[in-house]
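Need tokens for this chain, all 109 residues.
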Amino acid sequence: MGSQEKFFDVASLTQLLPGNTLKVTMAHGDILLANVDGKIYAVDDMCTHEDSSLSLGCLKGELVSCTLHGSRFNVRSGHPMEEPATEALRRYPVRITNGRIEVCLDSIQ
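Here are the structure tokens for all 109 residues:
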């Protein structure tokens, strides 16, 4: 990550307990935040197979499921773990500053 990247404050860390997800709306669209064992990950909220919000699905470990057709994605890597999805989710840099979750819109995938 370079020094030119801009991070945006999107939520309080207290809003996202371990094992949960939170959808936040940003300039380019919705981002899904996921808390996996205290580490926050940010990926596109929209399933890459069909237009369905992943925030409606369930987070189990590091896998979030799509309620439409059952695809599951690894929120750490963005990779689909089950069909029908075959395309990875975009991932975004995350940092925590003073108890706030900040996301950079520069995709890291």
